[in-house]
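Need tokens for this chain, all 183 residues.
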Amino acid sequence: MGRHDILTRNIGWKTTSFLLALLTWFTINTIQTGNNPNRFQSQALTEQRVDNAAIIPLAAAPVAPNTHIQAYDIKVLKLPDDPTEYVIQPAQVTLELGSDADPAPDLTSPAAVKVLLDPFDIPPGVNETNKQVRVLVPEGTIIKGVNPVRVKVTRVVATPTPPAEEAPAKNALPESGGEDTEE
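Here are the structure tokens for all 183 residues:
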């Protein structure tokens, strides 16, 4: 056997062994480098400067001539015989409305735009929550903004009042305190 046979015999196995050893070394080196907290110390932090001359100012978006911003009261949807009261904070919502319709609807009328709150899905045990308001607008109206979208709703639970019959009984004249009187 010559030197040539020692290097070329089983060359496939030798190449595979060398590649696996190289892959193992590379994996271990990557893991050790990733866990090293000092690996970024040699890098200097630099601040990026922006050249203001390169910034092109954008033109302001034109406001549609039929844009309307107004505060509207929130109305609570409930049955007529429902005694439950609700406190809403804030009590008004500011709407930004627009319209491309011709003729444009009257957005200033409170009858045309309605902001509603439906407390039906508030569970019975919950007395305070945040709910999203619903906005009803005329056909052809675009809702551009609602502020705030959610409002705080507090259910006011009425405490039962004592019956009116018991009140006069407490005002009765006191009897004489322990003295025996002969009649």
